[in-house]
Amino acid sequence: MDKTPSAAHPPHPVLLVDDEAHTLASFDIALRSHGINNTIRCQDSREVAAILAREPVEIILLDLMMPHVSGQELLQEISLRHPEIPVIVVTGVNEVETAVQCIQAGAFDYVLKPVEIERLLPGIRRALEVRNLRRENSRLANSLLTGELAHPELFAQIITRNERMNALFRYCEAIAEGQQPVLITGETGVGKERFARAIHDLSGRRGEYVVVNVAGLDDQIFADTLFGHVKGAFTGAERNRPGLVERAAGGSLFLDEIGELSEASQVKLLRFLEEREYYPLGADNAKRSDARVIAATHRDLARAQQEGRFRPDLYYRLKTHIIEIPPLRERKSDLPALLDFFLQEAAREFNKKKPACPPELLPLLAAHDFPGNVRELRALVFDAVSKHRSRMLSLESFRENIAARPAPGPHEGPKQARSRSWTAELDVLPSLREATQALIDEALQRSENNQRLAASLLGITPQALSQRLKRLH
Fold first, then answer.
1. CB 441: neighbour CB atoms within 10 A?
2. CATH H superfamily, domain 2-135
3. Mind listing the pLDDT tens digit for each residue in 315-358?
4. What is the CATH number of domain 429-473?
5. Which helix (H) or strand (E) holds 330?
6. Which residues, 6+ apart, have CB-to-CB distance to 470 below 8 Å?
7. What is the pTM of this model?
């Protein structure tokens, strides 16, 4: 038995079992040439059980005709004791009955010798994907059963008490160690990059976490940024320059604003995701990288691919794992914790003592829809603390900033809300008295009957609101 040195891909070794040394060597060389460089060679079938008991194995390539313990006996034993490990039978036995027996016994694939690596590789890659998905499903099931996070400290920068968010944390833990792409969606300001960073930290990958915002990159700049170039590829290319894909090898590549990619760039990214290989600009030979791609967008990619603006094949490849982060207006129970966190952060930055909050502040914030989400809340707090001079934090900065940004309607995005009037939805216009009554009732409801805060939401003084209430009632 000969074990290759530990390597990055796959995370656990591929076990090659064959009684012929030259066959093992040829398999090993062929796999290494295609980026699969973590293997164990086993020439004696009697050693397989000990190897599986000693260390985790990703997949197994198994010959059938071997002395001592046959491949069929091993297959039955592996299926019984290690059903999670995909087994690809590689044999010279060209019999339909034997192939059927192996598949029935649990073989993932059945490949005939002599083997062409192009025929074997797709099966190996599918087996690796299945192995990862099985592992992720197992972790997710355990997480759902316990309801607890294995590494809550890695989510410490995402302040929340919301159960939807905690469910997303558990999902991140389940998929973190996989190789498949992750698509993170959500409105601007919800914290997509924090989720991406948490996934990388959870993965245990030893490579770098590399970030690139692809919005505004034309096709050549995108290709050069991600894949690099060789000397002489274009005017000014005076030396070889590696791209970010190479820099992220063994780690994670976070592509922000993926919805802005041009069609030509989408094709290049799709090839990399499917083949795990790429061509630097001007290069004749492909390079390989095991960088895990994490993409994020505030766009509706499902609609974009239906409208022909985003390739369906890339969309479905990216959304192998999808994380949809809810906006702040759907988790307003997080406002107290977020407010406290940002107050402490702002106080440290401005070298001030953390100010006390007036009781009207939380109702004021709860009445706002936060089109800019957590990022907007942070900006509001920092602006208020920068102007803070007394013990109690003033409401004026919050009122001014909130009044300057009209809130969206219940089913509209911020941009759409600013371009339409809510009155356009009304079939019959109310009278001024009815409209005034409705607006006052809504303001009182949002402010939890705090007349001072309700008056602020309506843009009038508390005395004016009191007079209107007397006239109306």
1. 12
2. Response regulator (3.40.50.2300)
3. 999 998 999 999 999 999 999 999 999 999 999 999 999 999 98
4. 1.10.10
5. none
6. none
7. 0.72
